[in-house]
Amino acid sequence: MTDALVTLPMMHHLLWLIPCAPLLGALLIIALDGLPTRAYGVIANLAVLVSALCVALLWLSGSWDMPVQTAYEWMHIDNWLLDVGFRVDRFTLVMASVSAWVGLLIHLFSTQYMRHDFGERRYFAYLNLFVGGMLLFITADNLILLYAGWEIMGLCSYALVSHYYTKDENVYAGRKAFVTTRIGDTALAIGIFLCFMQFQSLNLESIFQAAPQAPTGMIAAICILFMLGAFAKSAQFPLHVWLPDAMAGPSTVSALIHAATMITAGVYLIARTHVLFDLVPDVRWWVALVGAFTALYASVSAIGQNDIKRILAYSTISQIGYMFAALGVGGYSLALFHLAVHACFKALMFMSSGVIIEIYHHDHDIRNMGGLHKQQKFLSFAYLAGSLALAALPLVTASFYSKDAIIAATYTADHGAFLAGLGLLGALLTGVYSMRMYFMVFTGKARSEIHDYKMTWAMKLPLGILALGSLCLGFIQLPDSWSFGPHLLLPWLEPVLTSVALPEGHAGEMLELLGAAAAVIGILIAWPLTKAEVRSGRGVGNIGFLNKALYIDDLAKVLVIRPFLALCAVLGSVIDGLLLNGVLVAGVRRLMLNAAEVVSRGQGALVSRYVLLMVLGLMLIIGYLTVQL
Amino acid sequence: MNLLAVLFVSFLLFAIGLAVILVRRQLLFVLMGIEVMTNGAVLAAVAAGQYWHSADGQVLSLFMMLVAGSELAITLLLAMLSYRYLKVSRIDQMNQLQDKLDKEGQLL
């Protein structure tokens, strides 16, 4: 495998281009004024293409064993050094490929999808910045740079979610995304501070080397903080509330956030720092628990949604939950595998959903759709590929290979049966909501008017590639227990990410069968469910408990937002209104005025008063002199 | 003659003059008060001259009368001019040079 197809010794000098090309693209789009709007799309595409080609060159040149490039020395304080450095190992390379290439396909799709839309230039600038931030985050070799990328993504998610800022609720959704992830950002920042305190270094490699000697309590604290950061960024329970609302942005933005950037950043963060997490398995187990629980919770919520994009949002939360479950039991490479697969089908589905929504005249409600298969054959087949991949149909779709391996891996952990049970139940429900969505949109009779929509090659090509990926990506890594077929990914990643124990013998086979059965049963349930719903006009979407996602969001409103607003009001009236404005500002002013009045009365242009003061002064002087003498 | 009694009368004149200045608002009365005060001082000077058997006291008193007379001439002129131009004869209304503030504390 290490035989280089192309020898490119210069490749490790070009690492900086991977994150910087999209960042530069964003800068160009902002700086160059007055170009035709199409040109901005072209710039954005080219910028990401450069990154994607750099990543491809890394693959071709076979330089995946830790090329490190130090772009320049950022800070040098005494003998402490901070470089702007980039590094790529096997894990990074896979992740960067997903981000850059899926990002590129989304950019390509956007050029047509966003044409004649609203604020294209701003859109492309942020889109580029987003991908740049993610790639910076991935390739950074120290925590400061990693945090910079992390924050760039936070900013871009805010800006892109509230892209249609003329509507109040869209801006609110953007704010919600920003503020919720900010909780995680703060945790991550504190974690980084602790890292620096403990290791006197921010370089990832030196932290990993020093980690085994550090006190366990410290490592645990750092890991918990990193974990919180990852939970907020990756929308895990209970910090997931921002994601369903983040659907306010354009569909392509959702595709980018869910597939190539942002959401996957949390998964990457934990896998990147897995050396630390391996030292504290107790903390790591909580990652698995939260992940498995989120996987089930989000798929329950997804069943009750009628908005096509909200279904997809909950499906993302659920799928990321599986990845966290894998991380929590040490299956970092499994998480990465599922992440790549998920990126394919989720980008595909989000971009398609954008088109579907346009076709149904900006109506998001799947109950008003239906019958699209006859009109849009290509779209239908692409979406079917995505839906089946989401449902993890056995054998033919990629996520069967990735997701079932995760469920199997969770079985080996403490309380493994419980975790695997959550996962299996989630898988069953995933089949239900995924195929319910497909059937509602594409089959049956049209329940509202279908508009004409012609997709150009720039839209069909990304969808086609991603559909192919959703189906075939799994074939690079068949289950370990199968003696035939390729096992490429996991053994290849093992030097970087270590491997996880999978259940042996009957338990493993049982889990495999159960996983496959869960998906198939889910899909089979979906068909009659959809038929009944179409016939009666009432279905799972009418169950308020499910539709409101178990009222977690409303609970957060009551428990967090309302007390906070009340506190703000109290602080505003007491501290600001009374203390600062009333006492401090107005009081000082009052005092000055009164004092001035007293003084000015002394010189109020009354001669007799001057005389009086003069006499008093004289008497004082004389009295003083008398006392002195 | 009892020096103390004379000095007491002189102090009384001075105090009455001062009180007139402090209390009265008519310019003419204020000027009169000044004269009364001056006279008190003159009386003290004369008494002192008498006590020490020196002519200095009387010389001093002559000078003081002269000064008071000249001063009165000028101040009466000023009083007349102020009445003519400013139409006021009260010192509490002769405050055209003061800064006046409104309720907000701004200069009027």
TrEMBL record, chain B:
Gene Ontology CC, one term: NADH dehydrogenase complex
Biological process terms from the Gene Ontology for this record are: ATP synthesis coupled electron transport
Q: Which residues cross the membrane?
A: 29-48, 60-86
**Gene3D superfamilies from the entry?**
1.10.287.3510
Give the enzyme class: translocase
Keywords assigned by UniProt, alphabetized = Cell membrane, Membrane, NAD, Quinone, Translocase, Transmembrane, Transmembrane helix, Transport, Ubiquinone
Molecular functions per Gene Ontology: NADH dehydrogenase (quinone) (non-electrogenic) activity; quinone binding
Under Pfam families, the record lists: Oxidored_q2 (PF00420)
Q: What is its EC number?
A: 7.1.1.-
Q: Which reaction does it catalyse?
A: a quinone + NADH + 5 H(+)(in) = a quinol + NAD(+) + 4 H(+)(out)
InterPro entries tied to this protein:
NADH_UbQ_OxRdtase_chain4L/K (IPR001133), NUOK/Mnh_C1-like (IPR039428)
> How does it sit in the bilayer?
Multi-pass membrane protein
Keyword Cell membrane in record? yes
Q: Where does it reside?
A: Cell membrane; Membrane
Coiled-coil regions listed? none
Translocase as a keyword of this entry, yes or no, is yes
Describe, as the record does, how this protein assembles with itself and its partners.
NDH-1 is composed of 14 different subunits. Subunits NuoA, H, J, K, L, M, N constitute the membrane sector of the complex.
* Functional description taken from the UniProt entry: NDH-1 shuttles electrons from NADH, via FMN and iron-sulfur (Fe-S) centers, to quinones in the respiratory chain. The immediate electron acceptor for the enzyme in this species is believed to be ubiquinone. Couples the redox reaction to proton translocation (for every two electrons transferred, four hydrogen ions are translocated across the cytoplasmic membrane), and thus conserves the redox energy in a proton gradient.
Which family would the database say this protein is a member of?
Answer: Belongs to the complex I subunit 4L family.
State the protein's name: NADH-quinone oxidoreductase subunit K
Q: Which organism is it from?
A: Proteobacteria bacterium 228
Name of encoding gene: nuoK
